[in-house]
């Protein structure tokens, strides 16, 4: 255990009190190193997921079936870019730079949600992603509005509003397909079947296997456990599958009167760890594309640096 000097012990006690009083921790407040590190990991991982998540959907912008669908998808993908930028800025308030975070992503040191390493094979995937993936994200993010770090909690309030639009547009695509021709209905069923398990994986390993969970709960960074969040998502989604008239993606889904929840089958954890560790169908492609886009944007960063330098030179000149 870390030994603290007297000043630090006072700071630690103040911090603990604030956490227990449900007060937010702000960037200039003292915080334990591990709290800071844990937040940087979780928030940057969240930011990376928003940004990498633009790729599977961006894949369908030029092939959206109508002008309306295209406009909606475009603005949804732009929202995700905004979420990424918002979260990178919030993470920078903890003393890490954006380029350090990008380096960690591109070198494979930092993770992002493994669902984005699966391909979007048909237009129905756009429906299934909005409905299931953004739906799962909302369940998690709603609880994060009460996370203990102020900038993260505030970012979540706005992000959740936009996520609920994302979820609805996805569900609307699914509704149209599920009530369309036999082929369209089949397409909706197939996209749901493929995206169902990766969506459940978004909540992370079982609580008993989760390395960071219990500490994060103690610090009130996380407000609900992985398994409870996953159950909440299943409970709210099963009636939606029924309303769509689709077959269940998991034959073991069944209402459990005693528990007051739906039972369901076990996730393939081997697949989860494989994809997280880089062996998913699209991991290589996603990072390769990110690197290419990042290096194409170098001229923008160059222009910003040179503008800053000019401003600085002017200031020095005026002061002389
Ligand atoms: Fe988002
Ligand atoms: Fe979203």
Can you offer a commentary on this structure?
The chain is mostly helical. 68% of the residues lie in helices and 2% in strands. The chain is built from 13 helices and two strands; from the N terminus they run ααααααααααββααα. It has helices at residues 6-20, 33-52, 54-58, 67-92, 98-106, 124-144, 150-178, 182-201, 213-218, 226-244, 269-279, 283-296, 298-319; strands at residues 254-256, 261-263. The chain has a two-stranded antiparallel ribbon with strand order 1-2. Helix 4 (67-92) packs antiparallel against helix 7 (150-178) and helix 6 (124-144) packs parallel to helix 8. The mean pLDDT is 95. Residues 50, 80, 83, 159, 163 line the site of one fe (ii) ion.
Helix and strand succession? HHHHHHHHHHEEHHH
β-strand percent reads under 5%
Major sheet: arrangement of strands: 1-2
Attached small molecules: fe (ii) ion
Number of helices: 13
Radius of gyration of CA atoms, rounded to a whole number: 22 Å
Label the overall shape. Answer: globular
Helix and strand content put the structural class at: mainly alpha
Major sheet description = 2 strands, antiparallel
Distance between the termini: 53 Å
Uncertain ranges: none
The multimeric state of the shown protein is single chain
Instruction: Tell me, rounded to a whole number, the average pLDDT.
Output: 95
Number of strands: 2
Q: Which percent range fits the helix content?
A: 55-70%
SSE diagram, text form:
Layout: H1 6-20, H2 33-52, H3 54-58, H4 67-92, H5 98-106, H6 124-144, H7 150-178, H8 182-201, H9 213-218, H10 226-244, E1 254-256, E2 261-263, H11 269-279, H12 283-296, H13 298-319
Antiparallel strand pairs: 1-2
Helix pairs in contact: 2-4, 4-7, 6-7, 6-8, 6-10
The protein binds fe (ii) ion (FE2) (2 copies).
